[in-house]
Write a sequence for this structure.
């Protein structure tokens, strides 16, 4: 890289801009791949993601939060131990700090529902008590995430969310990344 000049980097920049514009399409491909991941549940991880987003939409959330709900588990396939941090990193340039934080912390907040079954502390989330987004993250998990494993839920189809994903990932990035 040290031998590159402005012309070289202008050329690369043009390719990178085109690649960035394809982010929404790549995200949809990764999301679709969740249809064949993580066995043992009554629904696929894609269906879980669609249910979470459907609940957010039906609750009147803004488009940014609906897309975040759709993508909150997108990291499960390649980063099961820190999937929420990966999803938050994908979203970070395009969403508010609040939305990023909720997605980043949802994995830890979800342990409230099962840690006690393994002799572990279910209240790990309480270390964030007092944080400005603490209550909203509890609500995200309680109202949408933990409730979205229902094989009988009337899910909104992925096709309805694709334009939203496009709008979020094609807007001007926030300055927080």
């Amino acid at each position: 890289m040290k031998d590159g000049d402005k012309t070289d980097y202008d050329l690369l920049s043009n390719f990178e801009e085109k690649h960035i514009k394809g982010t929404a399409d790549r995200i949809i491909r990764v999301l679709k791949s969740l249809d064949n991941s993580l066995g043992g549940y009554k629904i696929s991880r894609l269906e879980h993601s669609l249910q979470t987003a459907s609940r957010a939409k039906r609750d009147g959330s803004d488009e940014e939060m609906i897309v975040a709900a759709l993508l909150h588990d997108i990291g499960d396939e390649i980063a099961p131990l820190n999937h929420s941090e990966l999803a938050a990193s994908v979203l970070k340039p395009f969403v508010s700090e609040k939305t990023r934080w909720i997605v980043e912390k949802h994995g830890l907040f979800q342990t409230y529902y099962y840690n006690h079954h393994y002799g572990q502390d279910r209240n790990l989330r309480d270390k964030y008590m007092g944080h400005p987004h603490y209550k909203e993250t509890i609500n995200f998990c309680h109202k949408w995430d933990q409730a979205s494993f229902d094989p009988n839920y009337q899910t909104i189809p992925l096709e309805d969310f694709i334009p939203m994903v496009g709008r979020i990932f094609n807007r001007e990035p926030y300055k927080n990344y």
